[in-house]
User: What shape does this take?
Amino acid sequence: MKTASILGVHFHAVTLQQAVEVAMSRLRTRQKGYVVTPNAEIVDLCRQDSAYMGIINHASLVLADGIGVIYAAKILGETLCGKVAGVEFGEQLVAAMAKERMRLFLLGAKPGVAEQAGRNLCAKYPGLVLAGTQDGYFTDPQQAIDAVNACGGVDVVFVCLGAPKQERFIAENMDMMHATLFCGLGGSIDVFAGVAKRAPDIFIKLGLEWAYRLLKQPSRIGRMMKLPKFLLIVIKERLFGRKGK
Ligand code: UDP
Assistant: This one.
């Protein structure tokens, strides 16, 4: 797989469909691994935390989630195959899993939300097996590990604890869990449960999903102001830095 380097984070240049194919082929051959979907905020965090950067760059699939990453690639002259939103990857992976009666575990979100998300996904994608769920507000990680292992073999675990918690949880605990593929998917369980809504298609097509989320939740302004700052760092890297560093 070709990669595109953005401030040291090595993204895989794949389309949504290719990403799902890679994931499915790993599942069929039981190759353990994990998928991350960094946005600009996560790339920025990686710059400040080399251990976290190591976790992100060791993933089997590093998908470009967010318009900030797409702009950064353009500025740096790196080739990506467009945005692959984590929530879209998650849903398409579930659709493919359902055809092969694979087993999904949902880990994350507030109590009750993962169960609702599981019911919705099973109704939409017959064939999918919901192996189990666990909310994301456990105090001891062992609780989540035990919950997964009590299911007797899982193909995919969606780990939705928000970044950077979810990627750290995966890196620290995946070896102890009887599952093949771990996907860090942020707020996706909320979306599958219908608790959080994605922006209308027109916003997504215009690359304005961030604006919709800001209108819906003005408290996100602090997080959003990081984007222009991030793009300035990228421009500086283009002008003065070593590319691909
Ligand atoms: N969350 C969780 N445990 C925690 C903190 C957060 O399960 O300790 C969940 C939270 O309920 C939400 C998700 O993680 O479902 C994070 O959503 P957010 O939209 O912040 O993630 P993003 O996609 O923006 O990283």
The radius of gyration is 17 Å. The chain has a mean pLDDT of 95. The beta strands are 3-6, 9-12, 33-36, 61-62, 103-108, 129-134, 154-160, 179-184.
